[in-house]
Amino acid sequence: MDKKSVYSILFRYGILIILGIPNLFLFYAIFTPLTIKPIFAFFSAIDSASYIVEGTNNVIFFKGYYATIISACVAGAAYYLLLILNLTTPMNIKKRLGSIMFLLGMFLILNLLRIFIFGILLTKGYQYFDITHAVTWYFGSTGLVILIWFSNVLLFRIRDIPIYSDIKQIYLDIKKIDES
Q: What is the pLDDT of residue 3?
């Protein structure tokens, strides 16, 4: 394994450790406003009486309901998982940056759509709102991350497997050294 490959692995995994240490703070700091502001704009377009409740930055009044956008709605862990999948897969920097933009952008768009749809369902008195919301959260979010990752794999023609490809390369290099 050449020095460039070693540095690449150390850098990629180091970034993941650094980003994960403060309890995903950076993901929530970035994606909370990127989630709340568009949702508020969407709700305001439908109901001009919508507003963000004074003294909060995450409670939106919409059509007679208070919707609290909590950290689970923002889904910082899902963004982190998508970044883990990206950074643990060997690829060149240009492909990696495009892939990261696609992964995070697509998840943001689909998450905004999910929150907006649930906001509309709530105001329509949807009989199964609670169960639908819970099932979507527990199972749909996992499926969404998987769908986005495999779309990314197809779009960017990624042939390596996260983590496995790095371990395999390290193993082959160690084996090569032992045989010398």
A: 73
- The residues, ordered by sequence, that sit 6+ positions from 70 with a Cβ below 8 Å of its Cβ are 58
Torsion angle of C-alpha atoms 40, 105, 76, 118, degrees rounded to 10: 40
Give the predicted TM-score (pTM) of the model. Answer: 0.89
Round to whole Å and give the CA distance between 60 and 39: 9
Rounded-to-integer distance, Cα 33 and Cα 28, Å: 8
pLDDT in tens, 21-65: 888 899 999 999 999 999 999 999 999 999 999 999 899 999 888
Distance CA 48, CA 50 (A): 5
